[in-house]
Here is the input.
Amino acid sequence: MADAGPQALCAREPRVPAERLVAEMVPPPRFDSVRFDTYNPDPAQPSQSEAVTVLSGFAAGLGGAHASGAGRKRWFSKKPAAPSGPRGVYLDGGYGVGKTHLLASLWHATPAEPALKAFGTFVELTNLVGALGFQQTVQTLGGHRLLCIDEFELDDPGDTVLVSSLLSRLVEQGVALAATSNTLPGKLGEGRFAAADFLREIQGLSAHFRPLRIDGQDYRHRGLPEAPAPFSEEQVAKAAYATEGASLDDFPGLLEHLARVHPSRYGALTDGITAVCLTDVGPVPDQSTALRLVVLADRLYDREVPVLASGVPFDQLFSDDMLNGGYRKKYFRAISRLTALARDAKPLVSQ
Here is the structure.
């Protein structure tokens, strides 16, 4: 048995200083060791192998002097020269085709010191602007070679304008960009691809992005057995007490707690947690709660924290209306990631 009882996520109220937000703009632990040569293209989807080739060349092209002329004197110009040609790439594909793997591989392959590259989700970038202010964020990221943005949130017009303005300033300073995105509300996920939506929403920035389509099925379930059925409440509690560093929470109570913690702190909420154990998992009651759960699922997946649960299976968390609505791509991603984490948690239960 573990030396102490399990912790409770509901008892945590983390505070995250701005310095941590900047320092954590690197690929998350799950993607710390990924590289282009560890990506496993589906032989039936040639666009996946093509993406590796294109992105490898894009990374190599980011070597040398900063596009704005940083590192050399500019005698006759008072402002940096705008980079010529596309300085960005947009990875266009459905959930589970490995876009984050490829985005993180691009970050790793770019020939620059880690301090000159940034990687974060759209939410993390908006949190950074909120913590530092717009001008300070421009100054902080303006000397970078590359900024990678995972899951660009097209469903929030205000934040989209804010980040598009930020990216315009960064492009002027020679920062290369790479992004993935979700699907706009009301689109019902048709075609599963969002390149046209993305390029339209970022408006003046569209000329700086080359869309790179990646076809395929969700790799997390490709050729794998189905996710384990939920365990009993007794099994979950026993595993929580037997696993050092595990947390144990009642699912409805955790959903209520998430409403009191800003999503920018969900990563810190899981600091030091080795496994998340949940009892009484049931359908999520409303869309606001569902979207908060999506963010938590992303942070748990990034940090490779297994999730052991009793109650309903994870594919029953979201109602049919949610799965057929504008945020369906987020919900299917959450189901996919929670299912993978449930599979990881199965060994925690004594057979």
About this structure: The longest strand covers residues 146-152. The CA atoms of residues 91 and 212 lie 5 Å apart.
